[in-house]
Design a protein that fits this description.
2 copies of one chain form a homodimer.
Chain A (H helix, E strand, L loop, with lengths): L3 H4 L3 H9 L14 E10 H13 L6 E4 L23 E5 L2 E6 L10 E7 L2 H9 L5 H5 L4 E8 L9 E10 L3 H9 L10 E2 L25 E7 L2 H9 L4 E5 L5 E6 L7
Chain lengths: 265, 265
């Protein structure tokens, strides 16, 4: 559990706790109001194509910051940070398979590593809650339901594959407001990809998500689907790069940017 | 002059006219309502850093599409196009100096060329006009005034330098509306960078623009400044790549995307 005092710590203070090994949990709720980011680290050889993939698929892959080869400080959105130590838990993939779960990258780091920080749904979920739209998975502490769709991403170099979406069950009278609220945040997935009928986007069984926990859809609620940050990871993995490092699910990188810095209008 | 009949041609039809050498003029007003783009072509060696520069500076460098090395079809935003032939006039720069002005790139093309298409202000200018905001440079057929500011861009690899802005003189009662209207188009420069006092952003003499034609500011008008697509070209040029190809000013690439495809909310 994130304690009340941690909610009021600054991103910089929390990154220091993480770096010192004193914060090893998922980051949900920590540094409330600040943008948290998904992490993907790839060798330079893959960097142009992966950045191109993100540019071509901005809804599942909203780029928050990309570091230059070997750069470890997230200098624009989190000055004085260190990407090798400031994420609570990392996943290491070799040839597309999980090979290690580690708490820092100091020994593993190579000068040709390029770090990609991509927006995550925490920012727009806060905006939904602030607009009176309840998110049951927040209250129950479970994970949002995620599904592999039949919507193709736009390929780039070796990267291609279907879009992964997250689903939130929204009371029907709040669906329009949910579209408006999340449209203000194109930098962190933005507006929904789809509203209603799951089979229209290739989801055959809503009660069996491909990732995360199942969601109970109540009477009068509509399933609403947003592009999900799992997409770039799953796409990168399927191209089986020799090495790729990501954050462990829920263990995000916390930037100094406020959610509102990513809003339009 | 663009004729009335050309205004009603589709982007694909105009690209064919350009390819066949039957349209050699600036593209302003052609295919009204469709997104036109700035072009920058660089060798693969520079592509990651230049894409990173664009990602870090989205207001002056809004990416519409990037092609893979050697790719000539703008496959996402203009299927069946050819970037070597579908711009009315190209500028070729060698080591940062203009070396040729040519109407197609067929002989010059190399398999490691990476083409960047970046948003241009035509889209948001149409939106301003549709909202009752007159743009005198449109009516007089002169070029918008552009200035080199003291606002630094965020560097990437060899690319760095000051931001170039364009200025439009807006009646004071329309300034708020101009901010709202252009905020809807973050993909084509978006909201203004600055409103009012030119010296606050390092412009010492408003009547002497660094590029384009001077603007007369009338009583009751306020100068409003937007990030300008000249920025990435001037930044790329100052790093003196062995070769770089751009569109000639005003001779843009016309995509199949509508301005409204780039709006939020």
């Amino acid at each position: 559990m994130t304690t009340i005092s941690e909610v009021s710590l600054s991103p910089k203070e929390i990154r220091k706790l993480i770096r010192d090994g004193e914060f090893k949990r998922p980051t949900s709720g920590a540094a409330a109001g600040y943008v948290q980011a998904n992490l993907a680290i790839l060798p330079k050889e893959y960097a142009f194509d992966f950045l191109l993939f993100c540019q071509r698929n901005p809804k599942p892959c909203p780029v928050v910051e990309v570091l230059e080869p070997g750069q470890v400080e997230v200098s624009v959105t989190a000055p004085s940070s260190d990407i090798r130590t400031d994420v609570p838990l990392y996943h290491v993939y070799e040839n597309g398979k999980l090979s290690a779960e580690i708490s820092n990258l100091t020994d593993l780091w190579k000068p040709d590593f390029v770090s990609f920080l991509l927006g995550c749904s925490f920012s727009f979920e806060s905006a939904l809650i602030n607009n009176g739209i309840r998110l049951p998975h927040f209250e129950s502490g479970t994970n949002v339901s995620m599904y592999i769709t039949n919507i193709p991403t736009v390929p780039a170099g070796p990267f291609s594959g279907p879009m992964v979406v997250s689903m939130r069950s929204i009371p029907q009278e709040k669906v329009v407001r949910a579209v408006q609220v999340t449209s203000r945040f194109p930098g962190v997935h933005g507006s929904p990809i789809h509203i209603g009928n799951p089979s229209a986007i290739g989801i055959t069984n809503l009660s069996q998500p491909d990732f995360g926990d199942p969601t109970v859809i109540k009477e009068g609620e509509v399933p609403v689907f947003w592009a999900c940050g799992v997409t770039p990871q799953s796409v990168a993995m399927s191209s089986k790069p020799p090495i790729m490092v990501t954050h462990a699910p829920g263990h995000m990188f916390i930037t100094d940017m406020k959610d509102e810095d990513y809003s339009v209008l």
